[in-house]
Amino acid sequence: MLSMASMSDRIPTFLVLFLLFCCVQGQMNQNFYQKSCPNLQTIVRSVVSQAIATEARMGASLLRLFFHDCFVQGCDASILLDDTQTFTGEKTAFPNVNSVRGYEVIDAIKSQVEASCQATVSCADIVALAARDSVNLLGGPTWNVALGRRDARTASLSQANSDLPGPGSSLSTLISMFNAKNLSAQDMTVLSGAHTIGQGQCFLFRDRIYNDVNINASFAALRQQTCPISGNDSNLAPIDVQSPVTFDNAYYVNLVNQKGMFHSDQELFNGGSQDSLVQQYSTDSAAFFTAFAKSMVRLGGITPLTGKSGEIRLNCRTVN
Ligand code: HEM
Ligand SMILES: *[C@@H]1O[C@H](CO)[C@@H](O)[C@H](O)[C@H]1NC(C)=O
Ligand SMILES: *[C@@H]1O[C@H](CO)[C@@H](O)[C@H](O)[C@H]1NC(C)=O
Ligand SMILES: *[C@@H]1O[C@H](CO)[C@@H](O)[C@H](O)[C@H]1NC(C)=O
Fold it and tell me: Is 68 noted as a catalytic residue in this protein?
C-alpha cells in the first residue's frame, strides 16, 4: 500500500490545484435549491422589491451588507450574528456600527423562506441573492448566483475591523485589501461602482470636502452645506451626486469630474493605475454592467462554507 507521503509525491501539483478549486467552488451552483426550495428566488425578489418600494436606499444597504459579509471570513452570514452576553460578533466593528443596514429585511426574507422550506436555505445565500436583486431592481444588471453557501457558527470582530477598507484609504491600500481576498485591482474598481447608489455620513467624507485638493469646488461647497466642519457627524448625503437611487455608471462620470464623495473613491481617478478603466466606464455603461456582474460573482466566491461545514441557521441572528 502506498504511504501518504509517496502518494503526494506522485500527484502532480496541477491536479491538486484543480481538485482544490473544483471542490471549494464545485459544491456551489445556481440550481442548488431547485428541488429543495423552488420558490426561493421568487420570495427573495419579492421581499427586496417591497423593501425598495418603501425606501429605495434599502437596495444600497443590502448590496453593502453582502460586501461586508464576504470580506470578513468569507460569504458566510457572519455579519448577521447578534452580540450576546457571551458572544461578540461583527456588528459593532467600526465599519459596521451605526452604518450597515438591512438586517430586518434579511429577517423578513428568512422567515418567508423558512415557512416555505424549513431548515434548507442558508442566510449567506439569502444575502447574496438580496444583493443581486437590489442591483437589478434599481436599474443595474443581473447575474446567476451560485448557491450552496452555509452559515458560520463564528464571527470575527477583529477581522471586520482590519479587513474592510475605510474611506480615507489610498489606491495602494485599496488594491492590496482586495488582493488579500483574491480580487484584482480591476475587481476593486468595478465593485466600487456600487457607490452609484446609497448614502454616506458626514464624518466619513468631511476630510475630503474640506481638505482634499482634487475635488470640484462647487461639489465641495454643496456637500459642506449639510456637513459642517465639526458636528452633525451622521448627516447623510448621497454618494452619487447625480442619481443616488439608480444603479448606473454615474459614479465613474463623477470621478472624472472630481466629484467622488469619499477620498477612497477619488483615488481611483487621480493619475494612477485605475484612471483608464474609470474613464472607460464613465462612457460605457454596458461594459461596466458586464464587469460588475462578473466581479460580484467573484466577491460571492470568497471562502464560502460548503458541504458539511457550518450550518443552515434557523434564525439569521443566532447560531442554532
Ligand atoms: C473600495 C473600497 C470601499 C470603501 C473604502 C467603501 C466605503 C464606504 C463608506 C465609508 C460608506 C458610507 C458608510 C456610512 O456612511 O455609514 C459606504 C457606503 C456604501 N458602500 Fe462602500 N466602500 C467600498 C467598497 C464597496 C463595495 C465593494 C461595495 C459593494 C459591492 C460597496 C457598497 C456600498 C454601498 C451600496 C453603500 C451605501 C450603503 C447605504 O446607503 O446604506 N462599497 N462605503
Ligand atoms: C486566495 O487563494 C489562495 C490560493 O488559492 C487560497 O489559499 C486562499 O484561501 C484564498 N483566499 C481567499 C480569501 O479567497
Ligand atoms: C465643477 O462642477 C460645476 C457644476 O457641475 C461645473 O459647472 C464646473 O465647471 C466644475 N468645475 C471645474 C473646475 O471643472
Ligand atoms: C446640525 O445639527 C443641529 C442640531 O441638531 C441643527 O440645528 C443644524 O441644523 C444642523 N446643521 C446642519 C448643517 O445640518
Answer: yes
Cα–Cα distance for residue pair 243/138, rounded to 1 Å = 11
Q: Is the beta carbon of 261 within 6 A of some atom in ligand 1?
A: no
- Partnered with residue 55 across adjacent β-strands are none
Contacts of 42 (CB under 8 A, 6+ apart): none
Q: What is the pLDDT of residue 27?
A: 84
Residue 149's nearest CA partner among 227, 80, 100 is 80
Q: Which ligand is nearest to the CA of 217?
A: 3
Q: Going by C-beta distance under 8 Å and a sequence separation of 6 or more, which residues neighbour residue 167?
A: 200, 204, 205, 208, 262, 263, 264
Which grid cell sits at 318?
443566532
- Which ligand is closest to the CA of 177, given by its number? 1
Grid cell locating 262: 469619499
pLDDT of 13 reads: 52
Helices (H) and strands (E) in the chain, counts: 15, 2
61 contact partners, CB below 8 Å, separation of at least 6: 100, 101, 102, 105, 198
Please give the Cα distance from 127 to 312 (Å, whole number): 13
pTM of the full structure? 0.93
Ligand 3 binding pocket includes 216 (Cβ within 6 Å): yes
> What pLDDT, on a 0 to 100 scale, did the predictor assign at position 12?
57
Residue nearest to atom 24 of ligand 1 (CA): 192
Domains of the chain, CATH where assigned: 40-164 (1.10.520.10), 171-298 (1.10.420.10)
- Residue-level pLDDT at 72: 98
What are residue 136's phi and psi, to 5 degrees?
Answer: -70, -40
Q: Which atom of ligand 2 is nearest to the CA of 181?
A: 13
Low-confidence ranges of the chain (pLDDT < 50): 1-8, 15-25
Ligand 2 centre to CA of 181 (Å) is 7
